Amino acid sequence: MWGKPEESEEATMDQKTLQLIEYPKVLQRLADYAAFNASAEIALALRPSSALEEVRERLAFTREARLLLSLNPELHIGGVRDVRPAAERASRAYVLSIEEIVEIKDTLVSARKLQRPFFTKKGGEIDPETPIKPEDFREDAPELLYPHLLAYARQLTPPKGLIDRISRVIGPDNQVMDSATPELSRLRGEIKVAHNRLMNKLQSMINNPDIVPLLQDALITQRGGRYVIPLRANFKNRIPAIIHDQSGTGQTLFVEPLAVVDLNNEWQELKLAERDEVRRILAELSMEIGEVHLQITQIVNCVAMIDFALMVAKYAEDIKGSEPEVLAFRPAANQEHPGSHIHFIKARHPLLDPESVVPVDILLEKPHYALVITGPNTGGKTVTLKTTGLLVAMAQSGLHIPAASGAQFTIFENLLADIGDEQSIEQSLSTFSGHIKNIIHILQESHSQALVLLDELGSGTDPLEGEALAHAILSYLTANQIPCMIATHFAGLKSFAYATPGVVNAAMSFDLDTLSPTYRLMIGLPGRSNALFIAEREGLAKSIIAHARQQIDPVEHKAEDMLEDIQHQQEQMRFARESAEKKARDNERLQERLNQQWQSIEAEREKILQETRHEAEEQLADMRKEMRDLKKRMKRAVRYAEKASTAALEGDSATARAVKETKRQQSLAERDEDRLEQMEEKINQVFSEESVVSSSSAQPALQQPRALKSGDRVYVHSFQKEGTLVQIEGDTAEVQLGPMRMKTTLKDIKRVQGGGDPLPSQPAENEKREVPRLYRTQAAPPLELDLRGERAEEALDLLRGYLEKAYLAQLPFVRILHGKGTGRLRVVIRQEVTASHYVKSWDEAAENDGGSGVTIVRLKS
């Protein structure tokens, strides 16, 4: 799906055109998101595909990547490195270094952790350090969410036992551990003993009163890997020793006394044996790695693809991209249209600053397949052509494009462009010659399923001949039904576009008040020349302006005035449409916020009702138990008193009184029990009526539900998000979730308020009930505290009092409004709620609910 160009027969885009439209710069920006060089290589090798299904698969891959990133915003590939060369060397019997082996282990560990977002464990959470076992996981959710990415995630399981094997041999300090093998443990033990004997012998020598005067310093050092002592040069014959080195002045000799040569030799021999054992251990590890080098290479490749997925997702988010709909060519039945289609609304050049670039609507739809753009210099014609080419190339590469949702285009088999100055000093070509050479190549390669972009067609030579040549080239393109966009200044091409079926005029608008281009493309009208108007505004003599006007055909002059009026009306319509769209978006956001607030209030109300019912049931149960215990005690007392009275006959008045009092207490207990049962029935009746009121207020008025249709606002249960229904195919629904488009079942969605159903009816005033309680609570404060504009100290005082009241009122959560501003008020407020003993947790509000200017505080119950 994402093979290199040389591996794909479909990668047929003209390479020179990709350079002209600056496609490599887009790839470089994409590669800047890479976490390691393997994924950067994939990005830089990316080329557009002309295979319809392949492009759809690529776009689905990017859609899944954006969903993965949105659900796991902190996801990254960890410590993965490109260890493929090391694994390949190991397969050829090379012994890897400790550092290379550790990098392989770290890569495998990171790859194993990278699997976790794609799997859901049965029965709860998972330990990040525990290897994934197939029987421990179900993959139903990932199969729905990330079918393409899951194919790579499944291959991230490391070779069995390799990570543990490396961990048992190489320690955290990147050294082979003593416990790696019994032999290494024995050698290192003997090295330590030999080293201690050597040091003790040397230490005794430098502390010997007879030897100390002969030494330059009383210390032990090393030369050539052997331990030596510093001897004064003039005493070199006083101590039998081997000279290994001398100081720069020659006054000090570094000697190995003959008394320690054997100890030094023993220590060195053990060190060499240790080195050989370590090398043998590393050779065994390298051999094990070599045996699974193909699996390690595949793991790195899959990690690179997942990192590439994160790259395309982050890039799409940064350019505010959306997924375009890919269409197949459908030539018209009457053979008057090749079947091409481009529909880009609010398209932006991806390499320009998104805050300053002016969006442009690029529409080349039936019945048109050729667009002739006219307008002033620096008006945006060239940028429009490059934007079109780049967006087509990006989309056919599987990238989301910087345009509004709903973008559509057909897959073009080739993209051919002549943009910019083709002058070449080395080849002795003039600007015109360079253009002609490029156009010849374009005409040879073009066909009805290629897109041709020509900038300043016919320029660089005599205007009359240039216009005639441009006319002929455009005639050739239209006669062969080749989709094309052409930028020009020639008035003759405007007339040609007006008179030729399938060709449409377009103009880059110009603000005559500011004498500057607006960079907006207006389709359906040719561009008009503003030369005389600009000259007059700049102060050219009126006599010259008048004389120039006389040279213009009055009919053409009138046509220019009509064009100005039409363009002015179109601009007014555009402003009116944008204003209406803005109001519609504002209303939709307001409606959504009101719905969310209403749902939050209903959820809070239901929660309080349930908690109150639960508390009431608990208290009733306690009282019922207490009454049962009391009745038992009373019955036992009555039985005891009756027996006592029988024994005492009539003479024991105290016993008779006790019996009488006991019976009275029993009667009172039975009466209290009856009252308790009546109270329970009344409370149950109140809760039952409250549930009826709640359900009536939570549901819309009964009406016959209509079927879902395209454009409805729906709620997707599996994503817990709202979106717009695009289309329904059988039991499958296609839904637009922000910039992402996904498919799900009809059972997974439901229409939301504002999507065709009426808003829920509110209960009448006399239907509202106070939530019953068996105890008194403090009056509830409002759910929202507005601290905007307050000083920090005053705000903290208000906040502390408010949190205490909200806690006593048993509110589940509250909203603190502090605004964004400099951020100081937000910081002190969040420090306070973090330290408050009333607070369970807090979160920043969603972006559409205030974002960083609002803090949602959850209170302890």
Low-pLDDT regions: 4-11, 122-129, 136-140, 422-429, 690-704, 755-778
Query: In angstroms, what separates the terminal alpha carbons?
Result: 53 Å
- DSSP E strands, number: 25
Helices, by number, come to 22
Query: Spatial order of the strands in the main sheet?
Result: 12-13-14-10-15-16
Report the radius of gyration as a whole number of Å: 42 Å
Helix content range of the residues, please?
40-55%
**What is the mean predicted local confidence, pLDDT?**
80
Largest sheet: 6 strands, mixed
The general outline is extended
Measured by DSSP, the beta-strand proportion falls in 5-15%
Q: What structural class do helix, strand and pairing data support?
A: alpha+beta
Describe the structure.
This protein is extended. A hairpin with a 2-residue loop joins strand 18 and strand 19. The two termini are 53 Å apart. Mean pLDDT is 80; it is low at 4-11, 122-129, 136-140, 422-429, 690-704 and 755-778. Helix content is 48%, strand content 15%. It has a six-stranded mixed β-sheet, with helices on both faces. The chain has a five-stranded antiparallel β-sheet with strand order 20-19-18-17-21. The chain has a four-stranded antiparallel β-sheet with strand order 3-4-6-5. It is an alpha+beta fold and 861 residues long. It is built from 22 helices and 25 strands.
